[in-house]
Amino acid sequence: MPTQAADPAPSPIRLVPEEGLPLPCQAYPLTEKRAFVFGGTVVSEAPLTRVSVTVSDPKGNVLLSAEGTPDPAEDMATRFPLWDKTYPFEDESLSARTDFASLKPGDYVFTLKAANDAAKEVILYTSPFTVTPVSALHTLIPNDLRGTYPAARALLGDDALPFTYRTGTYRQIQIDNSWVSRNITSVNTPFGGEWRVNRAAVASFEQAIRYMRTTYIHVGGKWDSGILRLNRLVQSYAGPYIPRQEENSPFLSPHVLGLAVDLNQNIGPNIAAPDNWAVFCKEISENLIYNGIQTKNGYSYYDFTYVGNWGQAYERVPTIVQNYLLYELAFYRAGFFWGVYYDHTCDASHFGLGEYDPSVHSDSPLALRKVFEYIDE
User: How many domains does the chain have?
Assistant: First the structure.
């Protein structure tokens, strides 16, 4: 009589954490009236049938809940992300649908569960956590920085992070004065005045500033800029150090660390908006032609021709490409990331350190880079 085959063992389900966006836990208190974003991915060998999160009080009463049915058509049946960083607050992720901002100060329990075709529902994670009053002194947690906390800490060092702060009005925060004294200093700008920057970033900012002072460009086409010093393309700037939250999000701005500066934010296409990515791709990839390094009247300069619709211009350079030139010829070379390459938006005004790898500008299929040899190298 043939032996009946044993039923296959249940397919394992596991959680792959995201270092910069950990799940709620005792180590990282949340803040009253403020949304909270957690990351990670539920991974399963068999198709997932359900993933759910709950927030309960200490007595077990469920106060918040959200669940999802992974869609095989979206390749989420075996890898289910808990947060969609591309559309962070408009998506249907479990993180976005868990309304932590509605919780009053107190103690709670967070639980993550999942089930697949081969296994009953299993608890992947559970932990108590605390919500502190909005008026309390808060300690920076990794989730405050949109997942970039590990990169920022690697740049600044373990002694610089975290810091303590209080939530103010109009998105402002009040950072511990002793932290500001130890970590924030000033550098001279090429436009007069000073920028307040993180001490760990002084060399990088000074390098970018030096490139702006010593680099010359020419943009021809319908109009002609003449040979122009790069720093003349800067009409306005904000930061680097600005202690505030991001607009319409629970995250703190990268400016709180003194590691980012916004240039020409007053120019329409430089305002953060996802749709601007397609605009910059066309204008830079198709309409801005790089002719190489030229020399005239003793000046060596980077020569460009713009063949698109000129629209607005400043110093006879189309405003649509000005921040690209500033990034390509100064900030990229100094190790900065450009906000055009953000996952969640396109922010051409933003130049930052300690967020994402700037090699996306040179090594990624998204790269808009044109200059590969520099005058002073």
Answer: 2
Q: Is residue 346 part of a domain?
A: yes
Q: What confidence score (pLDDT) does residue 362 get?
A: 79
User: DSSP secondary structure string, 324-365?
Assistant: HHHIIIIITTTT-EEGGG-SS---TTEEESSSS-TTHHHHST
Indicate if 33 and 169 belong to the same structural domain: no
Residue 185 forms part of a structural domain = yes
Assess contact for 368 and 329: CB atoms under 8 A.
no
In DSSP terms, which residues pair with 51 in a beta bridge? 68, 114
What are the 10-residue block averages of pLDDT along the chain, 377 residues in total? Answer: 48 90 97 94 91 97 94 79 72 90 98 90 96 95 94 93 89 94 95 92 97 97 94 93 88 95 92 91 94 94 94 92 97 95 91 87 83 90
Q: Both 185 and 95 in a single domain?
A: no
Do 197 and 329 belong together in one domain? Answer: yes
Residue 2's pLDDT is what?
43
Provide, for the chain, the percentages of residues in helix, strand and coil under a 3-state DSSP scheme, each rounded to the nearest 5: 20, 30, 45
Classified as helix, coil or strand, 50 is strand
220 and 81 in one domain?
Answer: no
Helices (H) and strands (E) in the chain — how many of each?
6, 23
Give which of 131, 140, 136 is closest to 167, Cα–Cα: 136
pTM of the model: 0.90
